[in-house]
Fold each of these.
Amino acid sequence: MGGKVVQLQQGERLALQSDDVDGWIEKFKDFQIVQLIDLDAAMGRPANDDLVRHVATRLPCQVGGGVRSIERAQELLDAGARRVILGSSLFNERGVNKGRAEAFAEALPTDALIGAIDSRGGKVVIHGWKTPLTITPEDAARTLEPYVGALLYTHVDTEGMMTGLDFDAVKSVNESSRLRLIAAGGIRTREEIDALDALGIDAVVGMAIYTGAIELKP
């Protein structure tokens, strides 16, 4: 955000920021995949395209934030992204927008698409976690299954708060789909990561790494 590496709490409050982009690239170099989110693009502000390209050509990245069109998704893949995260563009006020999801799946390799399901209070939220929908994350997971290669579930209630992940919520979403699940939202210990791994679920760890609560090693 703003050309810097940042960590936000629940997508709103700035908790950490760093100008040392190359330093973090070096620290993350041994990881199989790094999640890179353009928060400015997600919030409708000018995108950090040069910075995204700088990182994505040096690290294996799944990139998200404001991906509202097939053309934008293709631009990010061309810029070096291994996978693209689709969020609000897959939903409308009624729930999953199947027509849009199908269009993405027809135009781009399914394995390169990750469907993002963000949940607050047990319901899906979109538009930067500000617009609640009536569907549950489990419903979204079932509906998105034919159109994407994996699912990213973010438990917004605990995102960035370092309070621990809601395992019951994550397990419920995982059981709703056969797709590989990636879980995010408050992970603070390596034990949580190991517990997710035992269930075949990948973990997104942000704040715990940046604050030093979890030692950075692949």
Amino acid sequence: MQKDHSSNSTTEASIDFSMLLASSVHDIKNSLSMLLTSLDDVIDINADDNPQQRKNYSTLRGEASRINNALIYLLGLYRLENDQLSLNVAEVYVADFLEEQVASQQLLFDINNVVVTLDCNPDLTGFFDEHLVAGIVNNILVNCAKYTNKTIRVQAQKSNGFLTVNIIDDGQGYPQSIIDNLNNKDRSIDFNSGSTNLGLFFSQKIAAIHHCKDKYGTIQLSNIEATADYASGGCFTLQLP
């Protein structure tokens, strides 16, 4: 009897396509990184000559950065699903870490006249994968630069066995539909909404693989009301054990 190899061929083709897709994403990500570096140079050159042109270039940079982040998420999720994503957990000085992430987007903040403040004890430390968590923080900072009005507050502290990082903007806040569906395991990606929220999905996955005994990392979204000192806005919270 002749064996049917069609199912095996289909599986092999699928695996090959997945590997090809992952390799392509990696190459595109590298090209975008070079593009971002070149845009930084161009923006610096046009800093005084043509402010409007500089702003246009910075907008391009912001969108290129968002695309680059999306590719990083895709590559990370591929590795996660194929058990190729390993955690490199180390002790990290949180204030220094957060300052580096803010500095990496400082040009974007300057162009949009956004002031970023950091509230974190310089001696505060946490144990996490610095590279993966940097992807989470950078994604939120880029989004905040786009949607906030004037300020972004970055806060970090330890409480109840968790390192908690809050990134708060003074924009319109997060849509209630996103807040309500954040922890819905049955949610699907909506391509008609204008945003797939891939960054939030990736952030959830990365937070969750950080665990210590029975504690697991989480992300949360909320909207805060105005106070005497601060305007209302959206709050992204990352908690790591």
Amino acid sequence: MQNYRRPGATQTTSVWVNDHLRNRLRDGELVLLETCTDAMTTTGTIRQGADLKSKIVRVMIEHAAILSEKQANWIPLNKAN
């Protein structure tokens, strides 16, 4: 989370998230933070732990979470939305 709190000038996504977090907090909005530390993938009937070291797998899980949040009428603060 440190990169969002004090992003470097070249960390454009972190700067973007920092600006939005600050604006929402300043306006008194509720900000929830969710962090995925473990995930499962299912192929057919086979379930296995997701390899979170893989960027492709992390992006897939992130996009699934964003879609899930949108269906629950939450607005995720994420550049992918």
